[in-house]
Amino acid sequence: MANVATIPSFRSGFLVLSLLFSTCFLASVAGPDENPGAFGRTLNRKLMGLKKEKLSHFRFYWHEVQSGKNPSSIMVVPPVNYSKTYFGQVNMIDNPLTLGPEISSKMVGRAQGFYALADQGQISLLMAQNFAFMEDKYNGSTITVLGRNPIFNQVREMPIVGGSGLFRFARGYVQAHTHTHDIKRRDATIEYNVYVLYY
């Protein structure tokens, strides 16, 4: 009979020790000032694989083709009637990114996203695009740009707001400079210089 009584006490003792150990473990992971059941918490950078940040510079050419049978940019929303700045127009893009200014030069990725004409005083774009790379170790990684692009300024600067793959936690900026622009065909080649910090 004595043996039967010791089995439940052994189990309850084991349960108490397990709960105590679990509580101590969760407290050490969350940190002294954090509640493990809270909505957000601070994480250890090393556990996320975050090391020292790297700064890289990329230069490539962005080709917008609206002419021909296979355009890389198409209007999906027309502008407001009588707008001199094409206010309200939205274009979806899948533009090639190449190493050189010729569209036939080596392609390193694609600019995918959209832009909207968002200024009633001058022709200026709101740009939301991913640079989806397909070259070397960057294949499958993206850099995301979201910003204002007053297209007739000589140099336009837009922020990098994130990325994926090798560019997780990316930040930085891009500078865009018009290389060529064919007004009749509505085709353009833009030089992009990209300055990106990432882990």
Q: Would you give an account of this structure?
A:
The N terminus is likely disordered. This protein starts with a helix and ends with a strand. It has 199 residues and is mostly beta strands. It has one domain: AOC barrel-like, CATH 2.40.480.
Number of domains: 1
- Assign the CATH architecture: Beta Barrel
* Proportion of residues in extended strands: 35-45%
Walk across the major sheet and give the strand order.
Answer: 1-3-4-5-6-7-8-9
Q: Helix/strand-derived class?
A: mainly beta
* Helix and strand element order: HEEEEEEEEE
Look at the structure and give the CATH class: Mainly Beta
What is the distance, rounded to the nearest whole angstrom, between the alpha carbons of the first and last residues? Answer: 64 Å
Can you count the beta strands?
9
The overall pLDDT average reads 87
Rg, rounded, reads 27 Å
Looking at CATH, which topology would you report?
AOC barrel-like
Number of helices: 1
Main sheet overview: 8 strands, antiparallel, barrel
What is the CATH homologous superfamily assignment? Allene oxide cyclase-like
The global form is: globular
Low-confidence stretches: 1-7, 23-30
> What share of residues is helical?
10-25%
